[in-house]
Amino acid sequence: MRLQIASDLYHQFEGEGLATARPLRVVENVDYLVLAGSVHAGAEVLRLYGRAPVPVLFVHGCGELRGRSMPGLRRELAKGAAGTMVRYLERKTIRNETARILGCCLWSAYEGGPFSFSESMSDANRTLTDHRLIRRGNQPLRVRDALNEHIRSRKWLETQLSTPFDGITIVISHFAPSYRSLPAYMRETPAAAWYASALDSLVQMADVWIHGRVPDTVDYAVRSTRVVCNARGLPWETNLPRRQFDSAFTIDV
Questions:
Q1: What are the beta bridge partners of residue 93?
Q2: How far is CA 206 from CA 18, 131, 140, 175, in A?
Q3: DSSP letters of 88-129?
Q4: Total-model pTM
Q5: Taking Cα atoms as reference points, which of 154, 147, 207 lies closest to residue 177?
Q6: What angle do CA 253, 99, 108 make, to 5 degrees?
Q7: What distances in angstroms separate CA 43 from CA 37, 48, 72, 225, 238, one per listed residue?
Q8: Long-range contacts of 128-136 (CB under 8 A, 24+ apart)
Q9: Which InterPro entries would you find in this protein's record (predicted)?
Q10: What is the Cα–Cα distance from 2 to 89, expressed in whole angstroms?
Q11: Inter-CA distances, 159 with 19, 108, 139, 180, 227, Å
Q12: Is 168:98 a contact under the CB 8 Å cutoff?
């Protein structure tokens, strides 16, 4: 099975507005296009990729949620994806003849990095704009709300991954499941806990784990599990030390 992988495309910042964005070109002979979050504003991913030539495995990131209510957008994505080529995964599983694919945004645990849990939570509350731009109903999405989302997603993944399956297991998340995914300049900053969680023991229960969020491209192994991220990033983040985004990046599993 061949997967084309990308994330953090931020199509809304291309050209002269939403209507000018163009989808990635799908590579020949791939079975799925995997989009690991922060692809486009709101539910625009459905318009841009709804008629893709292959099924699109999509988890939302923070980029879709900014300026929106998270519960409302999730409902819009779930309803709008019906009848399109987009498979919206938020604590959902799809299966084919050879694999099961688990998907969720995941969020982060705000611990496991160089700072304490309370320091990471406090710093995120103070400086992370997502918690001012994303709503939960009529209220801002608090850091505690995001942590609760992470806990629910982690428990769901633990249940799914501990269920025996005779085939390949692939996990797609927006947030990174290991601090090994972070570039060196980020690992010793409070931002580390906003991007990744120390879930290495959980990672080992899958065959492949695909994520976004991290402003870089990564490809490494946690024991026998391959961890991959191919993030394009915001167009103005040109000064970050990072590897080159490959719009045609594929893996075989």
A1: 102
A2: 36, 31, 34, 16
A3: E-SSEEEE-SSEEEEEE-----S-SSSS-HHHHHHHHHHH-T
A4: 0.96
A5: 154
A6: 85
A7: 12, 9, 11, 31, 27
A8: 128/194, 130/62, 130/65, 130/66, 133/65, 133/66, 133/67, 134/62, 134/65, 134/66, 134/67, 134/68, 134/70, 135/68, 135/69, 135/70, 136/69, 136/70, 136/71
A9: Metallo-depent_PP-like (IPR029052)
A10: 19
A11: 41, 18, 31, 24, 20
A12: yes
The token duo for 19 is: 């209507």
Q: Which of 174, 248, 162 is nearest to 210 (CA)?
A: 174
Q: Distance between CA atoms of 3 and 31, rounded to whole angstroms?
A: 6
Both tokens of residue 82? 């019906």
Domains of the chain are 2-252 (3.60.21.10)
Query: What's the rounded Cα separation, in Å, for the pair 108 and 147?
Result: 6
Averaged over successive runs of 10 residues, the pLDDT of the chain (253 residues) comes to 98 75 96 98 97 99 97 98 99 97 98 85 89 93 96 99 98 98 89 93 99 95 98 81 86 98
Question: Which of 218, 221, 206 lies closest to 170 in space, CA to CA?
Answer: 206
